[in-house]
Amino acid sequence: MSGALVLFSGGQDSATCLAWALTRFERVETIGFDYRQRHRAELTARSEFRADLARAFPDWGVKLGDDHMLDLGVLAEVSDTALTRDMAIATAASGLPNTFVPGRNLLFLTFAGAVAYRRDLKHIVTGVCETDYSGYPDCRDDTIKALQVALNLGMERRFVLETPLMWIDKAATWEMARQLGGLRLVDLVRDRTLTCYEGDTTHEHAWGRGCGVCPACDLRAKGYVAWRRMESVQA
Ligand code: ZN
After folding, report:
1. What is the pTM of this model?
2. Is residue 203 in a domain?
3. What pLDDT does 151 receive?
4. For residue 229, which of 29, 49, 65, 80 sits 20 to 30 Å off, Cα-Cα?
5. What separation in Å is there between the alpha carbon of 211 and the centre of ligand 1?
């Protein structure tokens, strides 16, 4: 039991986590969730990125195993959010952005645990982050630690929930990609992943594809610009 299961959505964070896992573990599988996201483009981006990554880094390609795609359409039935319904992104009465899908990461990690159990994978890797997140309570370090305890008690295993991005910001996430796979990986993450809440693949920017306006694009753009600035100072 030394392999890893990476929660891979097709966005920048989970793509960087996938590369991180491929440098550390001998066998790496991925899991993705279809919860009737308003925008399906990210589901396309994830299979394209996996294929491109294996081609660009053959050493990682041999370690990259199965992709598990789970249908969690039930999540759209029980939640009323800007990610699953056609509504504008805004702040909800709770003070959280209405892109927060309650229970999403709890369900994702629980299903990941069930798949990791069956596949005999010890490490479950997720790109959640407390640093410059949108205040999602299920991205907190305490939530993840509590879930690790719950999964290990409930499944009688010793899973390790890995969160390589927990304490770093978006600029440092780009830098992590550079350290893991050089500029080739940075370019792949920039060009092939999709983070945009609007699922916009038609507009190209220096930091990748996206509407350029939504909070996810804003965070990604600022992070990329900050990383480029760090790079030029060092160079
Ligand atoms: Zn966007």
Report:
1. 0.91
2. no
3. 97
4. 49
5. 4
